[in-house]
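Many introductory courses stop at the sequence. We go one step further.
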Amino acid sequence: MKSCVLLVSACLITGCATLQPMEEAALPGGLPQSWASEVAATELPVASTLLEWADEKTLNELVREALENNPDLGVTAKRLEAQGYLLGLTRGQMFPQVQATLNSGHNDLDTEAYTHYRGSVGVNWELDLWGKLADAHAAATKAFEAAEQDWQRLRDALAARVIQTWIEQVAFRRAVTIESERVDVLQTFESLLTERYRDGTGNLDELSTARSRTEIARADLSLQQAALNESVRRLELLVGRFPEGKLTSGTELPALMVGVASVPADILENRPDVQAALARVESARRTMRSAKKEALPSPRISGELFRESARLGGLDSAVDRWTILGSLFQPFFEGGRIRSVANARVSEAEAAVLDLHSVVLQALKEVEDALDVAGSLQVQVDALAIAADESESSSRYYEDRYRKGLDSLQSMLIAKEQEMAVKLRLNEVQGRILINRINLAMALGTSAETGIKND
């Protein structure tokens, strides 16, 4: 008797220790109060969702089409839906389990042979005295919340990719236009040099050089056209269409805005991947608590209400009988299984905290990278815009001098090619700065559209 009292007392002490309030998952301390980049996030245009950054109806429609029809996103949605249904498994363990059975039996004895029928309703219930089952259900719920945040991140990433591919497609169309203009210019020069060669006023070297430049320009045009076609098909796949290369866009790059926050802590609260990592810490800690409670005594109640009759139709008039049994299950020796599982869950909980720290650091790095790139690209755009104006003026200057007979055709050709090269470079950087703006929007935790998180 004394041993039993000691055992119960030890279980109660262990149970009370296990029932201590659980530490709530939180972001790491010591977060920076400002960004290291020289580009201030507060200086950038502001929008609350990815669909508010540009007045581009066609593009916004494509983003919504992608969110509805992208097959990969649809697969993830169905898996998330299945995970939601499975929450009922852990929740159902906290309630009584009821089963109905109908049995028949036949006895063939020396003195008598008879058949009997038995209908019964059984109840089994594990009383969740220590909250073990509640912790398991809470862990599953937090894991589902993490999956929901992952789903949100996928939606945002898809919307961002559609926008970036659209910008890329517009930039390629502009590049094709510039390359086509370059081919036309070089063909004109080649024709002039051909006429001069036939008239005996030109030389073969100049004509060969002109033809070489024209063919190189044709090759560059073909390369830009192929890149455009591939970009179009990629965008069609993102929105869930067949990759037929028929989707078209304009040739004007849009002005973009992004959602911004003044301090890193605000941004981390907006990012779904950070919220998912926080939920996984909570889930791992709940799982750890549930595993530790496996060593505690588990009170269980089982009962049965039944009727027996020699005839199947006689069950209606048979007398009800019932049994009820209460028990206390206490594991003593299981080869270290419970302790090993509990220790494993402790390690998993610690790993989830480290993973949260890693996600936070990566999130801060993505913002710093995007801000730094934004500053660098802005310098390039400003410089190239000036270079484009200067090269255009230079081209006009040498064209005028050539028409007046004051300079050579070769000088005009060099000036024209310089003008085209600068325009191509400026177009490329203008596209990159907008694509980086979307990267910054994602890093800042800007959602695809208002209300998605509450779907």
